[in-house]
Amino acid sequence: MTKGWGNASKSKSPQAWDRRMTVPADAPILTADAMRAAEAACAAAGVSLSELMERAGAAVADVAWRMAAGAPVLILCGPGNNGGDGYVAARLLKARGAKVRVAALAPPATDLARAARAAWDGPVEAFAPDTAPAPLIVDALFGVGLTRPLSDEWSAMLRRFAGRRVLAVDVPSGIESDGLQDWLPPLPAAVTLALGALKPAHLLLPTAPACGRVLLAPIGIDAERRMRTLPPLPPETPTADAHKFSRGMVLVRAGPMKGAAGLSAAAALRAGAGYVVLEDGGPAPLSAIIAEAPAAFRARLDDPRVGAIVVGPGFPAGDALAAAVGEVLDAGKPLVLDAAAIGAALPRLGKGTAAAILTPHEGEFARAFPDLRGSKIERALAAARRAQAVVIYKGADTVIAAPDGRVVAAWPGSPWLATAGTGDVLAGVCGAMLARGGDAFDAAVAAVGWHIARARSIGRGLVADDLVKTAK
Ligand SMILES: NC(=O)C1=CN([C@@H]2O[C@H](COP(=O)(O)OP(=O)(O)OC[C@H]3O[C@@H](n4cnc5c(N)ncnc54)[C@H](O)[C@@H]3O)[C@@H](O)[C@H]2O)[C@@H](O)CC1
Ligand SMILES: Nc1ncnc2c1ncn2[C@@H]1O[C@H](COP(=O)(O)OP(=O)(O)O)[C@@H](O)[C@H]1O
Ligand SMILES: [K+]
Fold first, then answer.
1. What's the domain range around 376?
2. Where residue 44 sits, what CATH number does that domain have?
3. Which of the listed residues 264, 361, 397 should we mutate to test ligand 2's pocket, taking the one with most ligand atoms within 8 A of CB?
4. Is 143 labelled a binding residue?
5. Could you report the predicted ipTM of this complex, rounded to two decimals?
6. Which are the contacts of 203, defined by CB distance < 8 A and separation ≥ 6?
7. Are both 451 and 362 inside the same structural domain?
8. Which of 31, 146, 155, 435 is least surrounded by CB atoms within 10 angstroms?
């Protein structure tokens, strides 16, 4: 948190994107309802709501102080508690010697915001079309309480400040925080300070990019741990007594597009599987892959050492896929189902089948679960419950969900992954993680983390093969 926030958007450096849009790792995510419940639990435990607002305002003041670096600050306050946080921050910044102006959209409408407004002893301007800007704008207009899009008039007033350095309190105003609506904020933020927990809209498209760099102010709310951001990658070093089968054996079933299954097999090896068998593979991208003809491959399905089977990459829908999926389901081994294999397996999943990870992209998800509605997090969860499987709902805002309600949101990934074949790689990595044994959700989270970390380390010019070619 040093200099450069405000100028990062102008930087042409290839890594600028990663610096501009980051979120804290392994941080809690709460919907507005869950946030209010957590707030009520705090109150019941003896922490007053005004104390929570004081902590929130102090965190805002702290970040604003560093972003302003001595320059004047304009704090825009709305009528609710988001505005209340703004008044608290104004008081604390002034006490530290900052040059602060406050402009209000409307008088405070909650007891907490009124008290915060009363404790601010400076002037309050009316936020109007001619409000003078400042080098740092603190957006404390609306937070999780926004119930409808901002009016055109207010949107135009905010757009006048585009290009200034903007710190958004909780969310950039205009965003619907649960990720249910695609309202875009008129004034995107360089930095968003999430209060108590991250909100779905910080992590889902189309709103996430408008939040800029997201920081978390914990403020003492005891957020439940079921929904999180992507955790740091677990250590990958094999145990000292490892052997190739203890590290996990993965079978990859190939379809007509052999290259795709080859990428999956290579990815499984690179991600740490000790032994990878590719069916009918054509030329395998790594000679350490064991390529086998269909009959020998089928005999492998009964091998008790098999830790996971991958099917779907390069295998379009049709009778051949249906037969292949039927065979792997009969094998009773943990499965990674990608692309059209998801739809083919769906009617049988959850009926006594082994653990499975499904890896649909947007189009495959819509085909497999056409009736699901809600935010991407809600849809991923509903799909996981229906399939009784872990779902990796891919995209720039990848969401991983388990039938028991656990969710990891992986924004921001690496946009270098937006290239053909990277999904085949992810399916193979899932196979490697699943073949280690253990929980399928943890395996899926580790796979997504591996995929993103590898893509970031390669960066510019990445093609899917690069993800699996070398160890580093
Ligand atoms: N929940 C918590 O634990 C905490 C919440 N805090 C702050 O409180 C915020 C939530 O406060 P509120 O629930 O008061 O909600 P907001 O301050 O987000 O906004 C609600 C107000 O805006 C009005 N409003 C909503 N949409 C509008 C629109 N499109 N046009 C005009 N007016 C509109 C509502 O009538 C209401 O007066 C959080 O985002 C956060 O900043 C913090 O003070 C600390 C703790
Ligand atoms: N803009 C992006 N930012 C981050 N990750 C992305 C982006 N676009 C795609 N991805 C990731 O790249 C992979 C693409 O998978 P998929 O669409 O199945 O590709 P393919 O079928 O060509 O292998 C997924 O893991 C997805 O999450
Ligand atoms: K705000």
1. 249-469
2. 3.40.50.10260
3. 361
4. yes
5. 0.94
6. 23, 29, 179, 229, 397, 409, 411
7. yes
8. 155
